[in-house]
Each structure stands twice: as structure tokens, then as C-alpha cells.
């Protein structure tokens, strides 16, 4: 017998009543979930691509199609897009790809948790594994997108120079912010499916308030909205690093990242606290 | 060795009947939890709530096995989910010491697209086991599951029996728990595999504290050292003698009285005697081995020429188990003329397995076989035995043994 054994205590008290124990178990579960997270990620990625004829193409078909649409719209003059410092196709392709990475990260927590309902209702395993697995999958898909993007940039003759070294940081920021926002809505999203349905609607709207397909407006209300939008510095800075421009919103970029880190910690706590309550409300 | 591994102290849990309200209460609970407030608030029920588990307490030591029995919705599975830490109790406290293993959701995390081999690793990971541990025992798992060459086939091509076998094998071969939860997992596969499962569970239970939920009184009787009967979430009985618990469980089974037929005959009454003594309780518990006699009073109305009487004994699921046709002294079927009759029917030794039984009496026209009366759910009684056996009929024997020394 390998004593002493661990003791688990379950009471109606909120875990917040013993913060030290809560932090300890959060760290323990996060560390303990590494292998499971990896397994789940490998499982999902394999299953996803084994069952699809187009395989990994699906990782970038949507953003590619979006980019193509906008290039078409601007070329034909249906929509008048302002001047961009980059060639417009590069601008819109990087924009849609980075936006897709952000979307992936944002959707992952709710998607992963919902898909694991059956397991959650019956087995006790570190719940963090689902989130970490989601991040792994987002990163895997991001890598495919970036590979395509890199090929496109080389083809179009863009040379980013040394700032490319910083580009992965930009991608990680997108994943960080996406995960924090996605995790924020997960507890309520697990109870009410309205959230899962409403999110794409909201994001559809948000894409036009961010420098994804449109350049930053020069003046007026639109400029104010674009500048206040916390996604703006993320997208711009990451795009600048990738294309060799000097980032203009570095300060705001750092603030958003700090805020997202703090938010992630808070919503992680909320997710843990919410889990038993959510499981109780879904049928086993 | 005999340390207490499970401590359950006055645990209660509320559930809600209506989905819309349930979700809304979920939001409220979420709000309370995030503000650091206690779960379950003041212990009062909100509208449309009920107690799914109410004030349940017990302690369990290593080597003990607690059987949870009760009808559907009695709170067994809910209690198990609280013990497993999946949902929070609304009241009370649960303490679990040591490594927890559960044979509950077999094959959790299986992805149908992936092969059996890949899924073994996934399932093991969900159960908290490392790749190294699986590598060591992979062959053992595959052999236990008896799926042979199918191991590299996608699980979606497995028969349902195969995937359950694989799920059971992963858990059974790998886990070494201090505390083990079992929920209706043994009723899987063919009989050969069930025997293997039973042996595995026996090995696992020998050295752990086990909570076992099952509707099979045979499993309960052969595994448990203690039985708890739950009804509407409350503990009805907590007994160190499983036979008492099982008897109590059967007492909860209601045998509805029901009469059909043309109505030209009537079962006036049916009394039961054990070893010559009239049983007067509403639902007597009769020890196995007693000599039973039925006293049946019937009335046949004219103008029927004659009627035949047949008695049946049905089990708790109202399936017929014993048929007792009646004959006259000349070995021809007994035919009763119109009028009221008292029949004393010897039933012999009570050799029915521990369980709940009741009588059915059928009266039919002796020439046309038209059913005049059929009364079911009569005189319910329970057969009581120390051990619930794997047969409907139990006939203990003392064989004559002739042996020769082995070389």
C-alpha cells in the first residue's frame, strides 16, 4: 500500500471559501491533465482528418474563401476598400487567416466541453484537459494556416525580415485572447444553447469593426470604434510582425494581453466552479 | 488494513422536474457559487424541486462492499455521482480516501473512427492512466477483450458486444483502486464474458471499498457485505446482512390485483399456510424449505356445467414460474359444478429462489375452455433465503461422494 492516500472532500461549500486549496487543486489538475489533453487532441485531429477527403484543407478553406471573396469585391469595385499599406490581397489574406485562428480559439472551449458531455456526466477527470486539448487543436490548425500564409507571402514577394521572430507571439496572443473569451461564455453556453448560436452572429458583425478586410479608417466614428476595439491591436501587431512593418499599437497590444491573461485566470476559476453545477443540469 | 475509505454524512441532493426551471436554477446556483456562497442555499425546496437523495449516511472500510438497491429513480445513481465528485451535494459531506476507480461509463472517450488500439490509449487516459502503464499491459487488454484481429479496425465496425468488452477490459486490467464504484456494468456481453467480469470484479473488490449499484439481486447477494435500500432518495434500510436488504427490496415490489374473464366465476379468497400455520400478515416472508399449502375458495355460477381451476405462481416481474393444474382422484382434470368450493392444494416444499411472488388463479369452462375468471396478484409473499442463488428454483442437495485418491 502506498500511503498516505489523497483525500477528496465534497461539501455544499463554494470552493472559493478555501482559496489556497482551490489554487493548489487547479495547479494539480492542470499538470495532471497534460497527457489526457494530448490524447484527446490527437484523437480529435486524427478522427477529423481521417473522415474527410479534403483532410487538412479544411483548416484554411474558409478563411481562403473569405479572402477570395473580398479580393473579388474590391477588384470589381463592388465595395470600395480604402488604401492599405500592403497590397490588398496580402492584407485581406493575413487578416482572414489571423481572424480564423482567433475564431478557432474562441469556439474551442464551448465546443470541447459540449462534445465531452457524456464523459463529464459520468467520469471524474481533470476538466482542464478539455481546454488544453482545445488549445492544442487550435495551434495545430493555426500551424497549417500559417504554412499556407507563408507560402502565399513568399509568392507575393513579401519579406518580413527579423520581425518574423516575433510573429509566433502574435499568434499566441490571438489564441490567448480567443481562449479567454471563449471560456468566459462556456458556463452559460453549456446551459443555454442560445449562446453557441448567438456567438457566430456577433463575430460576423465584429469582423467588420476590426482591421481584417478593411483598413483602419482615418477619421470619424468608425475610426474611434476600430481604435477602441481590443482585437484591433492584436490583429494589426501580428500582421505587422508577419509582413515586416513597425507595429503601431504595441502599447495597447501589451495591455490587451495582460488583460486577457487576467481574464483567463478568472474564467478558469469560474469554469471549475461551474462544472459540477452544469453536470447536474445535463442529463447523464 | 480496515481503514475507513468512504465517509458519507447526511448527504442530500435536490433535483428539478421541469427543464426550463432546472436551467434557470442552474444559473442561480452558478451565481451563488461564483459569489462564494454555499450550494443548496437554506435547504428548502424551490418550486418543482424534490429530494433525489435525502439525508443518506454511511461509512465504508477497505474490503467492504455496499450494495445500493431500489427502484428506478430511488437515487442510487445520483448518490454514486455525488460520491464520484461529479455533482455537489446540497447538504452534508462526503470524504473519499485513496485512489478512486469507476466501472461506470465503459469505453468513455472512444471515437468510432479510430481503431481499437488507438481507443485503448484514449480510454486509459480518461481513466487517468499513463501511456507507459498501457504499453505494459496492452497485450493483456487485447486478450481479455477477446477481440483478436479487430484491434486495428475502427471501433465503429465493432459489434456492440465487442466495444463494451473492450471498454471493460481497459478499465478492468488497468485500474487498482482503493475506492471502486460500479454501476450496472456486469450485465454485459455473453455469459462467458460475464464470468470473466465477475472474477475481475471480485479481484478488485477484495482490496478496496466498493459501492455497487445493481438491479440484479444475484450480483448483490454474491458481492455485497452490506446492503442499503433506497426509496425516493431516503435510506429505507441499511443492513450488514444482504439477505435482509434484498427481502426489503422485494417488499417494495407491488403486485397489483387484477381480475379478468367473463365474470361467471369468482376467486373468493386464497390463504397460504407454511408448515401447517396460516399466514396472516399482508405480505408474509416465508423461509425457503417450508412446506406450503394453498387454501383456495372459488365460486362457480350457473348455468355452466363445470369449471376447471389452475393455479400459477408468478415472480416479481409477473412472469409465470410455477403452474399447478388440479386433478381429481381418478387423475382426470378436476371439474367443479356450480356452487362455492374450498380447495386445499398442497404446494410442496418452497424451493423458489429468494424473491417476491404472487398467485394467479385461472378458472375456465371445462368443455369450451372459455376463461370464466382470471385473478392475478393474489396473496403476495416473499421467499426468504440467506443467499440469492443463480436459479429460479433452489434445491440444496447432499450428494453421496465416492472418491479415489489422485496421483
Secondary-structure blueprint of this entry?
The complex is a heterodimer of chains A (284) and B (407).
Chain A: E1 7-10, H1 19-32, H2 34-50, H3 58-76, H4 88-115, H5 117-122, H6 128-155, H7 167-191, H8 193-206, H9 220-228, H10 231-243, H11 250-281
Helix pairs in contact in A: 2-6, 3-4, 4-6, 4-7, 6-7, 7-8, 7-10, 7-11, 10-11
Chain B: E1 4-16, H1 19-34, E2 49-61, E3 65-69, H2 76-83, E4 91-97, E5 100-103, H3 116-126, H4 131-145, H5 160-174, E6 179-183, H6 191-206, E7 209-213, H7 217-223, E8 226-231, E9 234-239, H8 242-251, E10 258-260, E11 265-274, E12 277-278, E13 285-287, E14 291-300, E15 307-314, E16 320-325, E17 339-349, E18 355-365, E19 371-384
Parallel strand pairs in B: 3-7, 3-8, 5-6, 6-7, 13-19
Antiparallel strand pairs in B: 1-2, 1-4, 8-9, 10-19, 11-12, 11-14, 14-17, 15-16, 15-18, 18-19
Describe this structure in words.
The complex is a heterodimer of chains A (284) and B (407). Chain A has 284 residues and is mainly α. Chain A is built from 11 helices and 1 strand, in the order E-H-H-H-H-H-H-H-H-H-H-H. Chain A has helices at residues 19-32, 34-50, 58-76, 88-115, 117-122, 128-155, 167-191, 193-206, 220-228, 231-243, 250-281; one strand at residues 7-10. The mean pLDDT of chain A is 88. Helices cover 24% and strands 35% of the residues of chain B. In chain B, the strands form 4 sheets. Chain B has a 6-stranded mixed β-sheet, with helices on both faces. In chain B, strands 10, 13, 15, 16, 18 and 19 form a 6-stranded mixed β-sheet that branches. The mean pLDDT of chain B is 88. At the A-B interface, strand 1, helix 2, helix 5, helix 7 and helix 11 of A face helix 1, helix 2, strand 4 and helix 3 of B. Strand 1 (7-10) of chain A pairs antiparallel with strand 4 of chain B.
Amino acid at each position: 500500500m502506498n500511503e498516505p492516500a489523497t483525500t477528496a472532500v465534497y461539501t455544499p461549500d463554494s470552493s472559493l471559501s478555501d482559496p489556497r486549496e482551490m489554487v493548489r487543486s487547479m495547479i494539480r489538475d492542470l499538470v495532471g491533465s497534460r497527457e489526457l489533453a494530448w490524447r484527446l487532441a490527437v484523437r480529435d485531429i486524427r478522427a477529423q482528418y481521417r473522415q474527410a477527403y479534403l483532410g487538412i484543407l479544411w483548416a484554411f478553406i474558409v478563411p481562403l474563401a473569405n479572402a477570395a471573396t473580398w479580393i473579388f469585391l474590391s477588384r470589381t469595385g463592388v465595395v470600395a476598400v480604402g488604401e492599405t499599406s500592403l497590397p490588398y490581397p496580402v492584407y485581406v489574406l493575413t487578416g482572414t487567416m489571423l481572424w480564423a485562428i482567433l475564431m478557432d480559439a474562441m469556439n474551442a472551449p464551448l465546443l470541447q466541453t459540449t462534445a465531452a458531455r457524456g464523459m463529464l456526466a459520468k467520469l471524474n477527470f481533470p476538466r482542464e484537459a478539455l481546454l488544453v486539448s482545445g488549445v492544442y487543436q487550435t495551434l495545430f490548425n493555426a500551424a497549417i494556416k500559417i504554412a499556407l500564409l507563408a507560402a502565399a507571402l513568399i509568392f507575393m514577394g513579401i519579406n518580413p525580415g527579423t520581425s518574423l521572430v516575433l510573429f509566433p507571439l502574435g499568434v499566441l496572443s490571438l489564441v490567448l485572447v480567443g481562449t479567454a473569451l471563449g471560456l468566459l461564455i462556456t458556463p452559460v453556453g453549456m446551459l443555454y444553447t442560445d449562446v453557441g448560436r448567438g456567438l457566430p452572429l456577433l463575430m460576423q458583425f465584429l469582423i467588420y469593426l476590426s482591421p481584417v478586410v478593411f483598413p483602419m479608417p482615418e477619421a470619424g466614428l468608425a475610426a474611434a470604434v476600430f481604435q477602441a476595439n481590443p482585437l484591433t491591436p492584436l490583429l494589426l501587431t501580428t500582421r505587422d510582425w508577419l509582413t515586416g512593418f513597425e507595429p503601431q499599437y504595441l502599447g495597447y497590444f501589451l495591455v490587451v494581453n495582460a488583460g486577457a491573461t487576467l481574464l483567463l485566470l478568472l474564467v478558469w476559476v469560474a469554469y471549475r466552479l461551474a462544472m459540477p453545477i452544469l453536470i447536474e443540469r445535463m442529463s447523464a | 488494513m480496515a481503514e475507513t475509505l468512504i465517509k458519507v454524512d447526511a448527504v442530500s441532493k435536490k433535483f428539478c422536474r421541469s427543464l426550463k426551471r432546472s436551467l434557470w436554477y442552474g444559473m442561480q446556483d452558478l451565481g451563488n457559487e461564483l459569489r462564494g456562497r454555499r450550494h443548496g442555499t437554506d435547504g428548502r425546496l424551490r418550486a418543482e424541486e424534490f429530494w433525489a437523495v435525502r439525508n443518506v449516511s454511511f461509512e465504508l472500510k477497505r474490503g467492504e462492499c455496499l450494495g445500493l438497491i431500489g427502484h428506478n429513480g430511488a437515487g442510487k445513481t445520483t448518490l454514486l455521482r455525488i460520491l464520484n465528485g461529479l455533482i455537489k451535494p446540497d447538504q452534508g459531506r462526503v470524504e473519499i480516501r485513496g485512489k478512486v476507480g469507476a466501472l461506470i461509463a465503459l469505453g468513455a472517450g472512444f471515437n468510432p473512427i479510430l481503431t481499437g488500439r488507438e481507443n485503448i490509449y484514449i480510454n486509459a487516459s480518461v481513466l487517468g492512466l499513463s501511456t507507459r502503464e498501457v504499453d505494459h499491459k496492452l497485450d493483456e487488454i487485447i486478450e481479455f477483450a477477446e477481440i483478436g484481429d479487430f484491434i486495428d479496425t475502427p471501433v465503429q465496425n465493432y459489434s456492440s458486444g465487442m466495444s463494451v468488452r473492450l471498454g471493460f477490459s481497459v478499465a478492468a486490467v488497468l485500474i487498482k483502486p482503493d475506492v471502486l464504484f460500479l454501476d450496472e456494468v456486469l450485465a454485459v456481453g455473453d455469459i462467458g464474458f460475464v464470468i470473466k467480469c465477475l472474477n475481475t470484479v471480485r479481484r478488485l473488490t477484495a482490496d478496496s471499498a466498493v459501492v455497487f449499484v445493481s438491479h440484479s439481486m444475484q450480483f448483490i447477494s454474491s458481492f455485497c457485505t452490506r446492503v442499503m435500500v433506497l426509496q425516493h432518495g431516503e435510506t429505507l434500510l441499511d443492513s450488514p446482512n444482504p439477505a435482509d436488504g434484498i427481502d426489503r427490496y422485494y417488499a417494495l415490489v407491488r403486485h397489483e390485483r387484477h381480475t379478468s374473464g367473463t365474470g361467471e366465476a369468482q376467486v373468493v379468497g386464497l390463504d397460504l399456510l407454511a408448515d401447517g400455520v396460516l399466514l396472516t400478515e399482508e405480505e408474509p416472508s416465508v423461509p425457503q424449505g417450508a412446506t406450503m399449502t394453498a387454501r383456495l375458495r372459488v365460486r362457480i355460477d350457473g348455468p355452466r356445467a363445470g369449471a376447471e381451476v389452475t393455479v400459477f405462481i408468478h415472480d416479481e416481474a409477473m412472469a409465470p414460474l410455477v403452474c399447478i393444474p388440479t386433478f381429481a382422484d381418478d387423475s382426470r382434470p378436476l371439474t367443479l359444478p356450480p356452487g362455492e368450493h374450498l380447495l386445499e392444494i398442497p404446494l410442496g416444499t418452497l424451493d423458489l429462489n429468494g424473491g417476491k411472488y404472487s398467485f394467479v388463479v385461472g378458472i375456465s369452462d371445462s368443455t369450451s375452455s372459455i376463461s370464466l375468471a382470471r385473478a392475478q396478484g393474489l396473496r403476495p409473499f416473499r421467499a426468504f433465503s440467506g443467499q440469492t442463488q443463480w436459479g429460479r428454483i433452489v434445491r440444496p442437495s447432499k450428494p453421496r461422494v465416492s472418491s479415489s485418491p489422485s496421483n
